[in-house]
Structure to design on (225 residues):
């Protein structure tokens, strides 16, 4: 069964450093998303992406965040200068064109900023 | 007011019980409603996906949406210890693919 994959599973970085989180969405999906979940809190929407453009972004997704689809299979989230409060699980999700909201999530990357 | 609210529990039931999980939402524009299951430190797994009001059944799982009362339910019949997880409700339809999640309900099914 096709699934969303994410790498790395755990990333430790120092405050102020740049990190890139990687995702491989389901191959025939056209819409891609990033969410995050701070420990003990709700899953929060960050950004949606379609046709090499951001479709929607939340207030959390400020100038330190960026997304890219560098090739036909990968989808990345870059955090330019990490802060302690960026520590969270980051989930990538994807959906087909027909149903935007039928989203399939990856296993997540746990980001720890020290 | 929080857009999607969910009692975090925890909820503990014996094996074989019928489990009822519920969420309420405030935004009338929500049209799509999802239930996800999340095991500890794992990604959310899509269980049920419904559009607008009504019921949807898949095996032991039934999802119900009542838009008039802004109420979402998930029923699990013949619950199993492997159903022990956090159950997340989510809603969408107000913007381009954004899902709004509830807090999640921690469910334990004990043998």
């Amino acid at each position: 069964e096709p699934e969303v994959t994410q790498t790395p599973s755990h990333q430790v970085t120092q405050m102020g450093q740049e990190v890139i989180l990687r995702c491989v969405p389901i191959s025939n999906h056209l819409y891609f998303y990033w969410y995050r979940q701070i420990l003990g809190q709700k899953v929060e929407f960050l950004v949606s992406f379609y046709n090499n453009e951001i479709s929607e972004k939340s207030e959390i997704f400020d100038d330190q965040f960026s997304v890219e689809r560098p090739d036909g299979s990968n989808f990345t989230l870059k955090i330019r200068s990490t802060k302690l409060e960026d520590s969270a699980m980051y989930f990538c999700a994807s959906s087909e064109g027909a149903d935007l909201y039928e989203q399939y999530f990856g296993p997540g990357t746990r980001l720890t900023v020290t | 007011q929080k857009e999607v609210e969910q009692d975090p529990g925890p909820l503990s039931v014996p094996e074989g019980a019928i489990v009822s999980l519920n969420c309420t939402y405030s935004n009338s524009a929500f049209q799509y409603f999802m239930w996800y299951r999340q095991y500890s430190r794992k990604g959310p797994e899509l269980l049920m996906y419904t559009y607008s009001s009504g019921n949807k059944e898949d095996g032991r799982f039934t999802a119900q949406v009542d838009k008039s009362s802004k109420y979402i339910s998930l029923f699990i019949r013949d619950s199993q210890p492997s159903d022990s997880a956090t159950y997340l409700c989510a809603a969408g339809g107000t913007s381009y693919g954004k899902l709004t999640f509830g807090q999640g309900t921690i469910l334990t099914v004990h043998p």
